[in-house]
Amino acid sequence: MKKLLLASTALIGFAGVAAAEVAIEGTAEMGFTGGDLKETQFHNSYTINFKMSGETDTGLSFGATYRLDADGSSEENQNPVGDNGTVWISGAFGKLTLGDTDGALDWALTETAMGTAITDEGTTHVGYSGNGDNYYDDQVLRYEYAFGDFGVALSVEQDDGNSATSTGDGDPMIGLGGKYKAELGGVDLSFGLGYQTGDTLRYAFQGVNFLDAIGVQYVSVDVLGVSAKAAMDNGFSAVVNYVTYDYGSSVPDLEHYGLGLGYEMGALLVHANWGKWEIEDFDSFDSFGLIANYDLGGGAILAAGYASDVSTDDGDQDQFSLGLSLSF
Amino acid sequence: MKKLLLASTALIGFAGVAAAEVAIEGTAEMGFTGGDLKETQFHNSYTINFKMSGETDTGLSFGATYRLDADGSSEENQNPVGDNGTVWISGAFGKLTLGDTDGALDWALTETAMGTAITDEGTTHVGYSGNGDNYYDDQVLRYEYAFGDFGVALSVEQDDGNSATSTGDGDPMIGLGGKYKAELGGVDLSFGLGYQTGDTLRYAFQGVNFLDAIGVQYVSVDVLGVSAKAAMDNGFSAVVNYVTYDYGSSVPDLEHYGLGLGYEMGALLVHANWGKWEIEDFDSFDSFGLIANYDLGGGAILAAGYASDVSTDDGDQDQFSLGLSLSF
Amino acid sequence: MKKLLLASTALIGFAGVAAAEVAIEGTAEMGFTGGDLKETQFHNSYTINFKMSGETDTGLSFGATYRLDADGSSEENQNPVGDNGTVWISGAFGKLTLGDTDGALDWALTETAMGTAITDEGTTHVGYSGNGDNYYDDQVLRYEYAFGDFGVALSVEQDDGNSATSTGDGDPMIGLGGKYKAELGGVDLSFGLGYQTGDTLRYAFQGVNFLDAIGVQYVSVDVLGVSAKAAMDNGFSAVVNYVTYDYGSSVPDLEHYGLGLGYEMGALLVHANWGKWEIEDFDSFDSFGLIANYDLGGGAILAAGYASDVSTDDGDQDQFSLGLSLSF
Lengths: 328, 328, 328
Known about the structure:
The structure is a homotrimer of 328-residue chains. With 328 residues, the first copy, chain A, is mainly beta. The first copy, chain A, has a single domain, classed as Beta Barrel (Porin). Helices cover 7% and strands 57% of the residues of chain A. Chain A has three helices and 18 strands. In chain A, a hairpin with a 5-residue loop joins strand 2 (38-55) and strand 3 (61-70). Residues 1-18 of chain A have low confidence and may be disordered. Chains B and C meet through helix 1, strand 1, strand 2 and strand 18 of B and helix 1, strand 1, strand 2, strand 3 and strand 4 of C. Chains A, B, C: Residues 1-20 form the signal peptide. Chains A, B, C: One of its GO terms (cellular component) is membrane. Chains A, B, C: It comes from Frigidibacter mobilis. Chains A, B, C: This is Porin domain-containing protein. Chains A, B, C: Residues 7-309 form the Porin domain.
């Protein structure tokens, strides 16, 4: 994946100078997907990643990322979309990142999904949560600092008035997160704890913003989340993840429960995750995702995925995929 | 053209590791164009090609291509368009390619055009045919296999319901193609034979879809094509190309005849091609294209082009161009 | 900034071959901006530059540039915009450039701005002028030739009918420019003189085309400009810039005055510029920009900017920014 970077690093050693550079990585997918909501069909997709890095005279590292995504249908792929744009600077003081990056809670918590599928069945089923941001326009400033086995982060996402539906009057979303790693009798443990508080323009499932439907522009929200992961030497690993969203009176509170289990043996990874959204006094959605990956080496993974339900509509609408996930 | 690839390969030899990589190539054009349908004007254009490649542990090759096109007018060039997105894997079993690639008929047949022109006079005149696909959304899966002087391919383009005008009910377009190469008394011969059958959303000349006009959504079509090319040691070459399109009763059948002649001497290439579309019981269009190329070396070609007729309107609407075609 | 180019050059020396290549450079910005017309907010942006170059067998150099810009708000950055597309060829005869490049007047004159700011306060205040083109669709052909301390350029921007509001009937904008450099008692002097004449589709301030408002499609204009720059050994430099726009009777004539002062000491650059637009018998706008840059090395600059007025509305609407400007 980082081969041009590797190449440049080798060169830099050769030439005896350190230098700012742009490394290019890419991904591609090839296979088929189907399910209750779409015809069984071929899928091919591409991303091009630009990874920029440099170093100041005093030894501060800095860099930026920007990605072109062409990961939709054949016709959508004619209009590549910019994504994952971030700028960062790091040194003894920690690391400061600005852009389309994780808020402190999302940064601290471990998601339940493992492995990959060409149409993302492990992470797109209706009961799944990525602990994500996107309270306003996804422009997050995050400061992080690591000391020993601990890491902490502070983040802010501001209502800068640049979003289509924003007046600029919302309170900023402030986040605080912590991580801790330990080893206990051959088991690698990691814990995450995160808290975010502020206003948001969105109260959404599956990309639908329900605030529009009820004519409310902003709601305040307190988000509290915890996660724990255990990875055993024998290849088994497990993740639990719990997040509660405490809204003001306008909309129901939310809770999310997640559980992920994985097993790796040589080139094989099998994984299952289950998640559940509970909407206060109203309804709940739960579903699961299954992933099987076989690493062919050199950046190629044979990937199968199954999602039990990909829509909030009544009943279960499943989805599956099988194909190659390629990294360059 | 493949210089970063070359660079990376050299480095990889240096570092002693084989690795997945992204190579960047580019093209640019500079010159002027004019004709009956446009003012004589300057033309400049760009494409950026991302070529990804890797190898699995068992020696299968895999890769992907994606291209950004900015090859329109100055203002259009502000919105680059993604094109030529393909993913492939190959090995002893043959090669499997998915994406914006040739169907088996197009793969098998040799087009009549040779050389280049900055505004494509050799391939855009009204009587020209590229034997092209685009029956649905241009997402083609093609399997190909070569043995000795023979090559065969099988392809499918599915109606996956993702096109704007598609219900997803069309039969897939299935293609079968074969190639054969031989040398006969100092003449390199190559033959192509292709057959495709299925439904399509399009019955189009010059980018206009006549199915819309007559209120028909799908038509079935059987396409049969042959081509032959002869290239002589003295620099002369000739291509003949014939394709017949047998539609159901909704729309007239089509036939296309093409002839291309070329002569190469040192850095010089001169070329002419003629093509004719015959529309059953209705009308026909024929026209020719002329190309002169002088290879300046290093990736630069001085290119002149003339097309006798670029519109299906009555009479001949010609077009010409002169400029530099550059490859990086 | 030119690190992959450097890398490739090193490799080329290593491999002993000269070759066409695509070098990738990038820029990124990180910081905050605010002022009378916007909330104080974070700013992050990206550009990816593709620089293509090659050489013919007879030693002519050729190349092309194309840039993807994602330098707006977080949501705008999802749609990168193509910019700065140019193709060029150069040799003993001079250099010919076609595309989004400076006309001869803009090429000859030195702008008053120095240094950088993440939201461009030095160059976007209402009284500033970049001496720019954009008479039609920004597609300029420029020929330039240098001899000793002199340089001359000739340019043409044609009304090719490809702009949205163009009929193709406007006279081309023809430009002529000259530069001269000299050293006088430890002071580096440079002088520029430019003249352009033709029609234009635009009579604009701050991006608003006033021709639309008054129902006029084309106006003829004669533009005459001069600039002078003096750079002293002690780090001080000064630029004066004067351009007059003589329109036909349809719209008032314009005059622009500009003055820039700078001081560099080690890693520090401080700069101020002032500019004034005078609209004949009507009104005038003047404003200033302030820049402070500290070069952190390795491509990172700490940049502060202040613009006294960024709108033609009554009163002053100021703007400021502080952040990191990064080059890769």
